Amino acid sequence: DAGITQSPRHKVTETGTPVTLRCHQTENHRYMYWYRQDPGHGLRLIHYSYGVKDTDKGEVSDGYSVSRSKTEDFLLTLESATSSQTSVYFCAISDPGQSYEQYFGPGTRLTVT
Amino acid sequence: GQQVMQIPQYQHVQEGEDFTTYCNSSTTLSNIQWYKQRPGGHPVFLIQLVKSGEVKKQKRLTFQFGEAKKNSSLHITATQTTDVGTYFCAGRGNDYKLSFGAGTTVTVRA
Q: Considering CB atoms only, which of A42, A58, A104 is closest to B42?
């Protein structure tokens, strides 16, 4: 497996609290992505990054923000968590030199009560 | 961006039987990728198809890219219990982002 870690792996939080998920890679890949996975929806792109400090919105970005201050780290923040954000969150990386195939982290299971 | 539809959502297969999952895009794709996710795991890259009409095989798995580069299929022969999981197709347009289908979740009856 590619060198991708996510932290925390599991989190339970209350509605209205801020939450930050971290993705760390050791592959020096240029592109990083945050997805959420919900039954019946597959993987939906939240935000992505195409370089340090370069980020853009995906298809389900409302309520989420991201930051990338270093190549290896990509942070996803839920400013004020809602129950609809209960999901499994996956980070992925890709690189042009590897045909943009994506390597996924182990995932973070987030429950908002 | 492109929308990718995948059917069926669920596939219950008797061990030893064959099955096929299909993927269709609303727009022409530059390539299509397939991933497998085991229960409780993360998606793992299987293969990428780039050329119109391309067919690739991995042991009992056969992947095909349509002539118009808008559809793809994954055919598994002689299904085994190790094939259990969810198979996703993911289409790439003109940039580096992927649009994932909803996946086909495969269960196998021994």
A: A104
| Contact by Cβ (8 Å): B68, B88 | no
Q: Which of A42, A58, A105 is facing B102, going by the closest CB pair?
A: A42
Q: List, in order, residues 6 or more apart from B15 with CB less than 8 Å away.
A: B79, B80, B81, B108, B109, B110
Q: Among A30-39, A59-68, A94-103, B11-20, which is the least confidently predicted range? A: A94-103
Cα separation, B14 vs B53, in Å, equals 29
Cα–Cα distance for residue pair A43/A37, rounded to 1 Å: 5
Q: Any CB–CB contact under 8 A between A44 and chain B?
A: yes
Contacts for B93 with CB less than 8 Å, ≥ 6 apart: B1, B2, B27, B29, B30, B99
Distance from CA of B6 to the nearest CA of A (A): 10
Cα R_g (chain B), whole angstroms? 13
Tens digits of residue pLDDT in A62-80 = 999 999 999 999 999 999 9
Is there a contact between B97 and A105 if contact means CB atoms under 8 Å apart?
no
- Using a CB-CB cut-off of 8 Å, the residues of chain A touching B41 are 106
